[in-house]
Design goal:
Order of helices and strands: HEEHEH
Radius of gyration: 15 Å
Strand order of the largest sheet: 1-2-3
Number of strands: 3
Structural class: alpha+beta
Largest sheet: 3 strands, antiparallel
Number of helices: 3
Number of domains: 1
CATH topology: Factor Xa Inhibitor
Mean pLDDT: 94
Length: 64
């Protein structure tokens, strides 16, 4: 039986923590940053944890 390939676009955007949660980076932090407040940009720098309902779907895509 064949193996399931890793979805490379998802693997670049998501990572799995040691406890098994899926970590993501915020969007909207690349362009037009002059229009955003310093507080908004500072919060966008931090990574976030994916919701528990979406975690199984992403773990299948990135095979971890």
């Amino acid at each position: 039986m064949g193996k399931i390939k890793t979805h490379k676009a998802s693997a670049k955007r998501f990572s799995v923590t040691a406890s098994g949660k899926v970590k993501i980076g915020h969007c909207h932090h690349r362009h037009n940053t002059g229009l955003k407040t310093a507080k908004r940009k500072r919060h966008l720098r931090q990574s976030a944890i994916l919701s528990s309902s979406m975690t199984p779907n992403i773990r299948v895509l990135i095979q971890k």
